[in-house]
Model the fold of this input.
Amino acid sequence: MAAPRKSRTEKAPAELTTGSSAGPVRELTLEESLGAQIRLLRRRAELTGADLASSAGISLGMLSKIENGQISPSLSTLQSVGRALNVPLSQLFATFEEQRDCSFVKAGKGVVIERRGTKAGHEYQLLGHLLGGSMVVEPYLITLHEDARPYTSFRHQGVEIIYMLSGRVVYRHGNESYEMGPGDTLMFDCQAPHGPEVLIEKPMNYLSIIVYPRQDD
Done:
């Protein structure tokens, strides 16, 4: 006997969860959404808080409270901020949820940039960039060519995850060294000196993801 068909009116589960332990998304208040949108537009315009506050004719303290959703600014203040950002007033009220950042990079189209280690034959392709959020995430595809040399003096803020794609390397972190091949992963505190110590099999490729707190202007 065939199983009974589900009613079209039967509701799906209210929430689907992933394996992540990240907390649920909290709905922003109007003030928080407005502040987040202003901060996003300011950063896109490459303005510091002091620059925007001066152009809008308000104090830096007031701008900080607006961006952090701590006050409900008057329309005249918002008009001044909009003019300083060269955007219509309506754009300031665009909901923050509708403008969640997303970055898509086609294969082979990462931006090649200069970083410490570049002179040692290490090539860095930045695979994405987000303007908003409290954390900065920098994903790099790193290639060590035949002329690459060891470099173990990287040291900076944040946490780094390395995932080997090809080649073999002995990667040093602090006083420990780890031999890595395709499929191996290493995650560590970036404040300790680190970097490729022995280049066993070149060329090599690995994914490096660096996460650190965003600094407010």
Residues 111 and 203 are 20 Å apart (CA to CA).
